[in-house]
Amino acid sequence: MTRYLSDQNKVVLFQESGTYAGSATPNPRWVGEVQDSSIDDNEGKLEDRYLGNLSRSYADFQDGPLDVTGTLTYKAQDMMLFAHAVGSVYETNTAGTNKVIVSEVNSDKIQNPFVSGTSNSTSVPFSFSLEDSKQSPGTGKNFIRTVRGAVSNTHTLSIAQGEKVSVDVGYTAQSIDGRSGTSTTISAPSVKPYLWNSATLTMFGTSFDTAKDISLEVNNNVEGPHYINGSRVIGAPYQGNRDYTLSLTSDLDSETSIAVYNQYYKGGSTFNATLDMNQDSTTGSQHTEIIMSGCEITSFEAPSTVEGVNELTLEIRPKNVSAEIYDDATKIGSYNPF
I need a surface site. Which of 123, 132, 315, 333 has the fewest CB within 10 A? Predict the structure, then answer.
């Protein structure tokens, strides 16, 4: 018996283009410093009892709907999955630096005018495959599962003091297959991960210099329909309402506390916010600026405690999000597979 040990675990991403759940591009893509990959592979067995079976036990099992979902957690070295979670990704390359413009796409626009494909569907903007492998000595002993047609449902970007920037992706996929052969070769790029000290959050023109935790969630409320079409797998998924949630915990600051409470929470004034992550000192080499507009504070907490520094916790709902991202194209590669 050979046990699978975690030091040989690996996750490789392939960008898909063209029609939904099309073939993966030939080149594998490094996701980031992956911390956890969990796949929920539900065979959807239909368990049944019926009159006349004359037993207290199950009477019948039938193959039901196949549902594949999963979560992926990693330390971010680029913002590719974040960009596609928001929507439209347009990039230009100048002297080896990719400039990526990220903007929202609503359902009155063609979601995937890709490529190699001829699809003008409004069902899904971007999909990817994930190869999750557990490797073991010996021929044909690996445990490899490949998730195909994965679409970001939730995407949460988290920044905590003293730590690397973390990303949690919850996805819905169309299918999964298993094999025991050779896993795909992938090497980590020589790119520094985003760190907490590269980030600043500015709201209503004020920089929150005592922020401790910041998270931005993009929730596309993806639906994976099971149509009556002769197949157990989901049809092309579609996005529901788009929800953004910006959460902030900081030391309570006398310079902003009353103004924030009176004008923006109780008064309901809207404002803009910018999350700026400038990782590299070289201009334009690794820099992400996320712009949130039409923001409103939906939750304000400032409890009084018997010790320590008083904290402020805010939950904020932006109406719109856009971003501008710079990467070293020679190390990160294109955000678009087409």
Answer: 315
CA angle 79, 208, 169 (to 5 degrees): 25
Give the integer Cα–Cα distance in Å for 286 and 288: 7
In-domain check, residue 338: no
Q: How far apart are CA 246 and CA 165, in angstroms?
A: 15
The structural domain count of the chain equals: 1
Q: Which H or E element spans position 39?
A: strand 33-42
Q: pLDDT tens-digit profile of 134-191?
A: 877 766 678 899 999 999 999 999 999 999 999 999 999 999 998 888 888 888 999 9
* Residue 162 to residue 158: CA distance in whole angstroms: 12
Dihedral (Cα; 109, 319, 292, 157), 10-degree rounding: -90
CA–CA separation, 221 and 243 (whole Å): 8
CA atoms 18, 78, 159, 317: torsion sign:
negative
Residues 169 and 81 sit within 8 Å (Cβ to Cβ): yes
Identify the residue whose tokens are 């070769």. Answer: 185
Pairing of strands 206-207, 33-42: unpaired
Residue 146 lies in a domain: yes
The dihedral region occupied by 299, where left means phi > 0, alpha psi between -120 and 50, and beta the remainder, is beta
- The answer to whether position 57 is within a domain reads no
Q: Is 1 a member of any domain?
A: no
Q: Which pLDDT tens digit goes with each residue over 190-243?
A: 999 999 999 999 999 889 899 999 999 999 999 999 999 999 999 888 889 999
For 183, phi then psi, to 5°, come to -80, 160
Longest CA pairwise span in the chain (Å): 76
B/e letters for 275-301, b = 16+ CB within 10 Å, e = fewer, are bbbbbbeeeebbbbebbbeebebeebe
Give me the phi and psi of 184, to 5 degrees please.
-70, 135
Residue 194 contacts residue 201 (beta carbons within 8 Å)? no
pTM of the model: 0.89
CA–CA gap between residue 25 and residue 337 (Å, rounded): 7
Per-residue confidence (pLDDT) for residue 141, from 0 to 100: 76
Q: Which domain holds residue 198?
A: 6-42+62-332
